[in-house]
Amino acid sequence: MSGKEARRLAEVRVGENETFESALRRFNKKIQQSGILAEARRREHYEKPSVKRKRKEAKKRKATSRS
Questions:
Q1: Is residue 11, in this structure, part of any structural domain at all?
Q2: DSSP H or E stretch at residue 34
Q3: Distance CA 10, CA 23 (A)
Q4: What are the distances in angstroms from CA 54 to CA 33, 42, 57, 63?
Q5: If residue 55 lies in a helix (H) or strand (E), which one and from where to where?
Q6: Which element (helix H / strand E) includes 50?
Q7: Is residue 8 predicted with pLDDT exceeding 90?
Q8: Which member of 23, 30, 64, 66 lies 3.0 to 4.6 Å from 14 by CB, making a disulfide possible if both were Cys?
Q9: Whole-prediction pTM value?
Q10: Which residues contact 9 (CB under 8 A, 6 or more apart)?
């Protein structure tokens, strides 16, 4: 994902008779689907460019071996 790509924040509107727990479940599901949580975990610590490159190459190799 490029740095210039705009990313919309996950938003959940709570219904009038909806419980907090169900709204929280919907919010968590939306975050999982959008990949926000995975990206936050990935950015938690600095990753050297060489490590990033090796990770991308390994991901590419894994994807080609599945096909």
A1: no
A2: helix 20-34
A3: 12
A4: 26, 15, 5, 14
A5: helix 49-66
A6: helix 49-66
A7: no
A8: 23
A9: 0.58
A10: 36
Per the domain annotation, does 46 fall within a domain? yes
- Compute the residue count for the chain: 67
Contact by Cβ (8 Å): 36, 11: no
Q: CA 36 to CA 7: how far, in whole Å?
A: 9
Q: How many domains does the chain have?
A: 1
Q: Which domain holds residue 47?
A: 20-66
14: Cβ–Cβ under 8 A, 6 or more apart, which residues?
A: 20, 23
Higher-pLDDT residue of 23, 5 = 23
DSSP assignment letter at 13: P
Interatomic CA distance for residues 51 and 60, integer angstroms: 14
Dump pLDDT digits (tens) for 9-57.
888 999 999 999 999 999 999 999 998 888 889 899 999 999 999 999 9
Question: Looking at residue 4, what is its pLDDT?
Answer: 47
